[in-house]
Every structure is written in structure tokens, then in C-alpha cells.
Batch of 2 targets.
Target 1
Amino acid sequence: MNSVLRTQGLGKRYRKRWALSDCTLDIPAGRVVGLVGPNGAGKTTLLNLAAGMQTPTEGTIEVCGGRPAGGAAQLAKVGFVAQDTPTYAGLSVRDHLRLGARLNPGWDGALARDRIVRLGLDPGQRAGNLSGGQRAQLALTLGIAKRPELLILDEPVASLDPLARRDFLRDLAEAVTELGLSVLLSSHLVSDLEQTCDHLLVLVGSRLQLAGDTAELLATHYRITGPPCDPGTLPSDLHVISATCTDRQATLLVRADTPVQDPAWSVSRVGLEDLVLAYMGRSTTDPVHRTTLEATR
Amino acid sequence: MIWLTWRQFRTQAIVVYTALAGFAGVLLATGPHLPRLHAAVGSSFVQLVSGSDYDLYLCGSLLVRALPAVIGIFWGAPLVARELEAGTHRLVWNQTVTRTRWLAAEFALAGLAAVAATGLLTLAVSWWCNPIDQALDDGSGPGPGFIPRLSPMMFDSRGVAPIGYAAFAFALGAAIGVVVRRTVPAMAATLAVFAGVETAMSMWIRPHLIPPTRVTVPVTADNLQGLRNGGLSVDLGHHGAWFVSQQTLDAAGRPVPVPPSFFDCMQSGAGIRRCGAELARQGYQQEATYHLAGHFWPLQWAQTGLLLALAVLTTGLCFWWTRRHVS
């Protein structure tokens, strides 16, 4: 299957700080990929590298089979809605559509007009006077009507209220289904991505912690509760992602390739949000948490 | 791509070109009056130029002098900086147009508009001032307050020099905007750097673009003019010439400051001629370095060539930086 995004040892350094390091990925086409992580984890850096806004310090990155922003043909394949959904404040909605039509040979004018009508945007209004949600929709329209193979969105809903957030994501999901494009979308909230995404990347402290199809991730992770923490009592084929220990019992979030069938442990499924939080928690500096992890590893 | 550039730039362009057309209209209406005056009263007409014409002479020259800096600050510096500040570069650079092509369109339209505006204004002002400039150069002046076009005060307001400055200022502003990434600081930095380059050009570089003439003449009662710029000044009878430097030498040919005997002589109430004769008796000489009025065009072309080369270099830097260092 074609890869839409493939990286090998990808890293980006700003002066002395590594914003992203040793990132190796291979995402097949047709997925809606959610990129989650706390603020400052390197999400924007990864997306900027994929869009070609930045160049890597080390490693390689290939998007839709080409070097990001490597030329007009490559730019045509990738749509990018940057953080804070920038638009020209002085230009009207109509001007933005004209901009899209003039600057993109593959522009789908009918699609863009339909979207503007459906969203209820006034074509004569200046982008500077639009609400945050409308501006995000306009930026998304520009990204979609360009008809890219991959649409990259950097925290498109971060500044929106819950209602606008829901509308935006629902609208995005519809467009994706209709046009069959791949999407890479970041957020620091898992709940934003849960409905929309079928593939997940978790980035923490500039490193990739988790990557995989959500269905598969949900199928291979369990919450198990059992005897107090003692590395010796754990089934051997489990990877402990997080552990909460008390004197009487231990609650562990584990990854297992086969279902856990040890009678000493009670097993339950885990939701996507808890799963992601567990991976995010792995690199916190909380000393107690850390010690437990070291002990169980 | 040009469409977007024009859409963003059109208001400024229309305002500037309208103002320009208005001023050119005033020049066109009043311009023919000077040659008529010349024809009526002969070569001394410069003495008779009216107050309003003199104001126009000065305003036009100042406007030409200021336009390149204004262009660099208000067109060059914000060109990319305002996109970077508003984040819209991340919108426009992700359409199916490479950064290089986008920047090329911006440079082509705004840059050419800047150079053309400056060129047209300079042409109009140079045409209007031509009778006065010619009279100053062939010695029928000097009128009160009129300045030969070769002097540093006027040189950058005539000929092709403003075009070189406009191209350079625009490229400089754009390049600084790309590097600084913020509009207002970029505007301030453009002004500072441009003023520095202009000063360096007229003080240190232009005098040597083509070799100046250097002569040493004895100080005489006839040629001594008095004190100027902290030294003695002699008149060599070259109209419209630009004196780069004058240096007094003693009888043995060594450079010396103004002889103390000269001050004593002047304080005693003797006239400039008497004191000049006294200096001549003591064998003082004057070494003068200057460009004759005929060097105007060679200097204009040389300086404009140099500035255009600088503009090309700065443009290259701007493109390179935009491609490599901006995200």
C-alpha cells in the first residue's frame, strides 16, 4: 500500500533544543491520522516538516512519495491548514476563493462555493471580521478545494468553542469520506480526535511514544487489576505502560499481543483517552511514578 | 500569482501614483515658464526665479531624495515581514506555488512599481529644474540658494541616481523584513541601514568612483574666497564643480592648518584681498580635489550601477533566506 507519510530517524533542532528526535513512521494512505501530545511535544514541528515549512536537522521525510514542498507538483499534493488558521484579514471570503483558484491548478471551484454556501459564510465579508470558527472553516475550505492527496491540519480547533469544534470536526469527517483524502490532524485533546481518527500518533517530549490504527491499539491494550506491585507476579508477555500501586492492589495499563488470561488479574478494556494519557504519562517527571515504572520494566 | 500580489498592493500603488500624477501635473504646468524667462532676460534669469518657483525647486528635489527611503521603508520592509507577522505566509506558501515564485511575483510587481514611480518623479523634477541646473553649470548663476546638481546636496535628486537608490532600498527593506520577521522593527532597521549607505556613498565612495582632478595652485589675492569647512577655500573658476577636499600647503608643500597670520590679518580689519595677498607673499598654496561639472553623468552611471549591483545582491540574499531560513 502507498505510504502517505514516511519518516526515518527524523529530527529537528532549534539552536540547542531538540523539538523532535528520532521519529520513524510509515503511515499508509487513506487514514485519518490524529497526532496527540501535550503542548510543546513537537506536534507542530512534525506537521511543519511534513508540509515542508521547515527542513529536518537529521533523518529523512517523504510525503506522498516526494520531498515536502519540493516543487509545485509536491505542493499540489499536500494541503496545509496551519496553526491559528491564518487568512488575509483584509481580503474577503470571495477573494480567498479567487486566491485558491488562481494559485492552484487543481482547484475545485464548485466544491469551494458549495462549502461556503453551506457554511453560511458571506462571500463579501472580510476574513478579518469572521469569527474564529468561520475563519477555521474558510482555511479548511482552501485546504480541501485544492484537492490534495494529504490534508494536514495543525490544531485547527484549538481556539474554537465546543460547539464550533464539534461542527468543524464533523464537517471535516464528511469531507474526508466524500473525497477520500488522507488527513493528518493534531490536537492536544484526545476527545477531539476520538470521533474522527482511525490512526493515532502520540508524541511526548519530542519523541514518538505510540503509533498505530486505533482499532488495533484498543484491541491490544488492557487495564488489569491484581495483587500488589511486584515484578515477579506479572505475566511475562506484558508491557506495562502505566501502573498505579497501592498496598492492597495494583492497577496496570498493559499492552499484550494476546488476551490476558491469568486468573490472578481481572482484565478490562481501556478507552482511547485513557490509553493516550497512559502513554503521555510515561515521560512525566513525577518521581513516584517513575520509580514504579523502573521497577516493573 | 500576480493577481494576489496586485490585490494586496493595489491600494498603496494607486495612492502613490495618484499623488505622483498630481505633483507631475504641477511641474508640467509651471515648467515651461522657466525657459521662457531664460529667453526673455538671458543667462542671469536664475536671479529672477520667483519665490514659489524656488519652493518648487527645493520641494521637488527633496521629494526625489526622500522617495527611495520611503519606498524601502513602506513597500520593501513590510513586503514579506507583514506576511510573517500575520502568519499568512503559511497560507500562501502552501498553495500550488513555490516560495521562490511567490517572492518573484512580489518583487516583480512591487519592485518595478517602486522603481518606475521614482524614475517618473525624477524625470519630471530633472526636466523642470534643467534650465536652472544648466545655468549653474555654465556659470550664469549662481542664484541665491540654488545648488549645482553635482554637489552632494543635489546629486541624488537628479538623473538616474534615484532609480539606483529606489531599487536598492526596496530590496534592502524586503531582505531586512525577511530576516527580522517583524514589520515595524524592519522598517526602522531599513531606515537606519539606508541612511548609512547613502551617507557612505556620498561621503566616501562617490568621490572615487571615477578619479577626481587634483591641482595645486598658489593662494592669491584674487582666488582666495575665505574660510569654509574649517579650512581656507579658493575659487578655481570651475562652475558647477564639486570640491571633494581642499588642503592648504605651506611654501615647502607640507599640509598645514589655516595659517595663524591669516586670522590676525582678518581681525586687523584688512579685507580678504589684502589677506590673500599676504598669504601669497608667504608662499602658501592650495591643493584642491574636485570633479568638474562634466563628471555628472559618468558619476551618475557609476553610482547607479553600483547601487543596482547591491540591489541584485540584496535580492539574492532575500530569496536565499526565504527559501532556507523561514518557516
Target 2
Amino acid sequence: MSVASPIWEMFLQKIDSATLLEHASLIYVRVVPKDLLPALTFLAKDDAFQMDYLKYMTVIDWEDHFELVYHLYSYRTNLECCVSVEIARENPIVASCHHIWPAANWHEREMYDLFGVTFSNHPNLQRLLLPVDWVGHPLRKDFVEQDHFNGVSTTRNNVVKLPSAREFES
Amino acid sequence: MSVQYLADAAYREEVLLFFSRVIPGQVIEAITLFATVAVFFSLMVTPIAAISVYIERRLSAKMQSRIGCNRLGPEGIFQMVADGIKMISKEDFMPQGADAFLFKFAPYLVMVGAFVSFACIPFSKQLLLADINIGVVYLLALSSIVVIGIMLAGWSSNNKWSLLGSLRSAAQIVSYEIPLGMSLLIPVIITGSLNLQEINQFQSGGIHNWLVFYALPFTVPAFVIYFISALAEVNRTPFDLPEAESELVSGFHTEYSGIRWGLFFIGEYHNMFLISCIAVTAFLGGYQKSAANFPFVIVSLFFMFFITFHILTFLPKLGFSLFQGKNILDMLMFHHPKPMRRWLRIVCLILAVVVSILFYINHAHSNMIQVVTFISKAYFLVLFIMWLRWSLPRYRIDQLMDLCWKKLIPISFICLCGVLVWVVLI
Amino acid sequence: MNFETQYINDRQMELNMGPQHPSTHGVLRFIVTTDGELIEKVVPDVGYLHRSIEKIGEKVSYHGFMPYTDRVDYVSAMTANHAYARSIEKMANIEVPKRGHYLRMLADELCRLASHLIAIGTYPMDIGAVTPFVHALREREKINDLLEELCGARLTYNYMRIGGVSFDIPQQFVSKTKVFLQEFAIFLDELDRMLSENTIFIQRVANLAAITTKDAIAYGLVGPNLRATGLHYDLRKDQPYACYNELDFEVPVGKGEQGILGDCYDRFIVRVEEMKQSAKMIRQIIDNLPEGPIIGKAPKTIREKDTSSYASVESSRGELGFFVVANGTANAHRVKIRSGSFAAISMLEKIAQGVFIADLVAIIASLDLVAPEIDR
């Protein structure tokens, strides 16, 4: 399915502000934040798309903004696309889509945990992978680890000093 | 030599006349009785439990295509000694918040249920510790003491998982006592006596007299039901949910360590041997002489001779290798070469056949032959129980209860009524 | 006097199936609220194995990230290698020669066998039958020996490179694999006879935690778990990669033979059948191995700009995918790993309602969870 097929034309008519890109044979649908939930609902429910499978959700941290990516797939129509939306870095709040795909529940929790993106209307927005009392969101580019966690130091003197510095140690 | 020598008053007077000047007579009686019991258990019952542990490890390894414990001693027979020393030397601790007295007391209750039951089982015509007239009732009563012990163990551990395990076990044991009792009633009805010795005497004279074949359509299911219920009584797979390893780490004995756990562990093997002994006594002819004893006796003698020869063959090798400078440890861990195994096996087999024919001919005169017959038959059932443990998955608690109440109890009722009719009419 | 009344819930018991647990599925913790033996609520607590592999992907180069992908799913590590390599090759347009594809398929299927052996082995062990576990591990040892000859490692292989594979098959590898396949067929037959028709096993496992296809798709369930619900979908057939379209194999789908469609028994049977199909595939691969180079031309340092790609393979637990975003430097900008166990464990709260504690262990084992995939 390429970008120029009639199905995507119909999508662009429905959601005006979307733009379509294609990287490495994967279609990216970039929408504005206010169109996110309508676009996702449309892709999930419309007969031509029927994207019932949310593969994953991820957040990409560009230095000045976040980009939220939803990768969707349809078993029936074999369509595949990534819906991406740019959101602000300070106080990012997005509407949750767990009522469309229950799989989003845990993915949104993971995004909250690792990036700090808050999802409104989420039934249980708590940290998933990190301990509940962790401070900070690690996968952000500007994350600095706290010095102590529950009394244990998080740094350790480098006991082994290799004779030659290699590139993957930087 | 009969045990009654030690209990005979005249003999005792002769031997212990010296002490009677110092210690009063009743105390001597008590001491000799205690000594009798101790000797009986240490010579007869406990080695079997100890060997069972070793055999379970080797047998399970054989079934899983691996070797099993073979490091300590030739083919690993000293493993139990090492395990015993380890258990005794472990730190004795109790979980925080555990009820101290109950925690310490519970293993003894479980052990008592197993050990004391051996008192009324006839190993031969004379080798019977206590000729109790209500032997069957005595056995059923003691299994209830085990329930109390298990519940105390689970409750006093201050651990929710142990509590779950012990409650499951209590429900299971109490439920399965019903089909157990009913299927044990069948030999009682046929022989008309609760005395185990008399039940044994009834089955003398050959395999056709065995109680399991008495009223064929009813006693064979009765034996099977007895066996299944007894397996459930001793918490053995497929009914080992109370000590299910993958859910509750060890069930009701999770918090026990060292010799306290060792008592539970040995108690389980004693229980296994006990239920096999009861099965053999009540259904399979006990120590009586019959042609069917041949295979059991051959197997146990073969086994015994094989192990003995195997150990003995290490001694000359020991001598040779000392001269040739080989490491003893290397030599002990070496798995013997094939040609030696073959002739060893043939020799042992021939010897076993010869000895079992001799046994059959001389049965009536010797206690030892009767004991060997009895133990070999009972041990065969023990091996069968071990086989079941390593092949079958376990039942869930509600399926277990379902099996007992909805399937075993009706069938045992039918068997009971059938045997009643059979005894009256035939 | 003002007394505060506090409602103490004495009907429910809160149990903790802690991170250390005899069920060998990795370090997982479940907080279970029960009413006696019946479970009312299960809350999985994951994160004990979180190593932030995704953050490491931003610090090392594209080539240097390959060993880390092994650790994502160390039970079947080659599939993770394969997925990452495919993703980078898609992004940088790198061609893989045919022999490289065949060797990748060989490694994948051997790892699928190894992983399913663990799943099939630990599942009866959690239910009570200990013997199949030992036999399954014996077969897995043989596979480990084969893979050790192939690439030098037994668990974390680091065998695939961007553009192909790193080593060619050694001498006598083909004959050893054929010997292994013969013994493996005997083992599978024994396992079938011992477990698949065992009354106790079926009683424990059938009609338990049935998942409908609609629920499975909605929660993102993939792999054998999804196929057990009846949906015929396999990435190797429906979106074929790496010369899978040249192999002849079937995709086993659950049929609800002993109970409801999509229950634990179906998940078990689907895995057993998949092992049979994998053995068939391995035989075809080693019989038809083409000649040629094993690795294509890939630049020493990959620098891509303004592009991203996603590629997935059918791992033993379903779709294992890598989403890589490039930003013009020698390292990736973001690596996101999508795994099948993550979706499976998120379904657990829903399907483990109203079952016994003993059943909970069976359900967790039937979903074939491995903790490193969930936590990354």
C-alpha cells in the first residue's frame, strides 16, 4: 500500500490537517494534537481501515518537542501505518486511547514511566517498569540520575581502567 | 531369633539380675520394652526409609535419562549419611512471629503417626510388635494424628502460603479417610477379624487365597481404591498439592529447616512404606508362602546381591589402582565397564533364583524368609509409588475433592455391598 | 469520644507471589487477592529485569547494539538479532545474500525449537509432572551444542550482523543437525504420548482461561497465544521475510480439541505442533542451503538522517519488532522494542479472574512469559 492509494485519499478528506510521509516502506500519518483521538478512532472503526491491532506506542524525544508514535495494523485489510503527533515537552498531556484498544493501557503506563507523558482518562496511570518511588523519567534526553535511591548510591567508581579508550565507552 | 526372648520374663531375670539390685523391676520392664521398640525400628523400618530416599533419587534419575547421585561412596550410597549430618548441623531458627511451641511440636506429631503405625503390622508370624485385636481401627486412628500435625505446622509458621498448604492437606486427608476405611473394611468383612495377623493367616496357602482375588469383581476395585486413597493420605503425587513445589514453595513445611524438616521428609518415606505394608498385609497375602512371591523375592535379592557385588568389586580395583597410582576419587566416580556388568548380572540372577527356590521350600520354618517376602512385596509397591510421582502431573484441590467424594466413595460403597453379598451367599 | 471506624477486609487474603518463585518464568511478581483459594484480582508487578536496553541503543553505534539485542529475549536470542538486523537493513537499504538469509532462517528455527522446549518443559513442571522438563532440557542442550559450533556461544549468540551473518556453518554441522532431528522426533513422540492425552493434565489445563480472538487482537496478543485462539496469522506466511516463502510448512492453529477454543490446552498444543513444523523447516533448510557469501555490503559506520524504520520477525513469543529512529549521527536516536510477552502479561489481569491459585500458575506458564522481554 503506497501513500497515493485511494484509501489514504479518503483519510485525508476526513482528517484535513494530516500529512502523509513514507520512510522505509512504512506510512507515517502526522496529525495535529487536537485531531489525534478522532484520527485514531477513525482508523480503528472505519470499514476501509479496521485497524484493530495496536502494535505499540512510543515517544521520541527530539530536543524541543516530543513525538508520540502509534503503530497500527489491520488483520483484515493488511494495512499498516504509524500515526505520529508532536506534543510539547513541558507538561505533555495526551488523551488516552485505551477505550479503543485495551492494549494501550500498559503502553501508556510505560510512556508515563519512561518519558513523563501524562494520559488523561487513564484508569491506572502508575509507573510500570521502574519502582514507584523513582524520581525522573529516564528515557528523556536530559535525564540526570539521582545520586541516591533509597539510601544506595547510584554511582560507582570505575574499578577497571582499560588501557585504551574505545568509542563505545563514551 | 524371636523378639519374644527379650520380653520373656525368665530370660530377662537371668540377664538383668545384676541390675535389679540397683534399679526397680518395673523400670527394667519399661527400659527393655523401649529397647525392643528401638531395636525393631532401627533394624527394620528406618533403614528402609533411608534406602527409599536414595532409591528415589536414583530411580527418578533413571526415568529422566540422567545419572542421579553417585558421588559419595560407591554409586552414592553414603548420600543419606551426608544428608543426615547436614540436616543435623544446620542452624535452628524459627520464623518471626511463629508460635514457638506449636512450631517445634508439629513434626513430632507427623512422625508419630507414621512410626507408631508400624507396631501392629506383622512382618512375619512371630515378628509382630503388638498383636492388637483392633489393628485396622488403630491404623485409621493414627492417620488422623498426622492431620493435626500438618495443620499445626502450617498455622504456626506465620506464613500465608504454609497455611494454604496445610488447610488443603487437612481437607484432603480427612476426605480420603472415608474411601480408605471402606476399602480396608473389605478384608475385615471377608476374614471376620480386625486383627492384622488373622487377616494374614486367612491368606495362607498360595496366591489363590489372596484377599484381592477373593471376590474378584469387588475386591480388585477395592484394592485400587485403597491404593489411591492411601496415596492421598500421604500427600504423594498425584495428590501432593499441599507441598506443590511450583506454587507454594514447600507447602506446610516451607519454614522448616534442618532436622525439623528432616523429620517431615523421613516421615513421608515412612508413610509410603507403611501404606505399602498395609496394602500387602490386607490384600496381597502378607508374608505367606505362594508362587507369586517368586518375582518379588527374585527382584529384591537380585538388587541386594547386585549392589553388594558391585561394592565388593571396587575393593580389588582399589588395590590395583593404589599400585598403579590412580586417584581413588577418579576410580570411585568411574562408571563400571560393560563386560563386568554382564557377568555380574548373570551371576546375581542365578543366585537369586536359587535362593528364592530355597525360600519357597523352607518358608514355614524361618522368620527371616517371611520377612524378606513381605518386605520385597511391600517395596515393590513403594517403587510403584515413586514411579507415579515422577510421571504424573498433580490434581488441583477441587478436582481432588471431586475424585474422592463423587467417584471413589460411591465405587467403594458398591464394592462393600458386593462383598457383603458375596460373603453371605458364597 | 470520636472513634474512627475502619473497615478491615477479613474476607480477602492478599498474597504475594514474589519475584523469587519456583515457577521459572523470570523475575516476575504478582500481587494476588484471593478469597480462600479463588482469585479475585491479580496485579502483575514487572520491572525487576529492567536494564534500559532502549536507552543503551542511543549510546552505542548501530553495529555495536547487536549484542544487546540478545539480552532482550535470551531464551531465543537469534530472533531478536534478526529483527534488529532487518530493521537497520530496511533503513539503510542493505542487501542480504541468499545464503545469509538461509543461515538466518536456520538460526531462527533452531532458537524457536530451543525456546519452545523450555515452554513445553516448564509448563508440565508447574503443573506437577517434573520429568518432561528434564527431557526437554536434554534436547535443548543438544541445540545449544549445535549453536555453539555455529557461533561460539550457548545463550547470547550475537550471531547476526547487519547485512548477513557472521560465521558460516562448520564442517559436519549438517550431519549433526540431521542426527539431532532424528532424536528430536523420538522425544516429541514421547512427549505427545505422555502429556497430550494424559487425563490429569487435560483436567488441569482444558477450559482454563480461554481467550477469544477479538480480545486477543484488542490486547495486542501475538504468536502462538494468538494462533491458539483460532486466528491463522503468522508473520512468516503473511508478511514473509528472509526466504520463508521458499519453505514448505504449515501454521498450526488452535482447534479447541479438549475444551473451549483458546484455552491453555490449545496454547500447549500449538507450541508442540510448531516444534514439529520447525523440525521440518530445519530439514528443508539444511538440505537446500545455497552457495554464496554470507554477508552483504554494509558501511562500517551507518549514518542515516531523517528516517526511521520498523521490522519484526516471528519469534517464539510472537512478533518481536524493533522501531529505530535515525538522526544523522553514528548512533540511533531511539530504539523501541516491541515484544509479545508484554501484551500477554497485560492480559493477565483480565483472564485470571475467578480461577484457583493452582490455575494461576498454569495460566502464567501457558502464556510463555519471559521477563526480559517484558522489562527490556
